[in-house]
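Why does residue order matter? Because the sequence determines the fold. Keep that principle in mind as you read this record.
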Amino acid sequence: MKRRTLDLAFGFGGLVFSLVLLVVGLILSNQADFAKGYVKDQLTAQQITFTPADALKGEQDDAPCLVDFGGQILDTGKKAECYANEYIAYHLANSATEAGYEGATYATLGTPQRQLRADLQAAVDAGDPTEAVQADLDAVNSLRDTMFKGETLRGLLLTTYGFSIFGDRAAAAALVLLIGFVVLLALSLAGLVHAFGLAKSQQMIVPT
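Structure:
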């Protein structure tokens, strides 16, 4: 095979493949921009602001991010993860502990709630005082309502964080592909320049 023919084949083939890398890279870059903008718009619309660092009351002990983001608007996936896992989770855990149900969640509070309802009904049926049982039931109802709202918000924020991660990975993949496009384009053009500089009759291997 002629060396010139081989260079032309690799050169044009490289050009085609570099264009594929360019197209895919631009698509991924567009999707990364969409994810970033969508996350920012949706989070900003919630108008959540981090508590200023000097107003925190223990939340920051194991969460430096709460200090870093103190006073800022929650508008990125990373901020959403911090707020969900460090701020909301901290206050939910504290609420459960203060109510006497350390480690409780919305799901686990269903058991004591049902038991207290049964105890209240039994007290009513027996004609016994119901104030204490009713107070305990009201406390569990209030805590479970708080848990439901807090855990729902946590889930939404963490879902948004997950969506932002896909955007970050798309951006990283786009960068790799665009770098690959530039490198392959340069090599392909160099091959074509070399090919057109060779004599048409020059062979890759000269027979003996």
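The chain has five helices and no strands.
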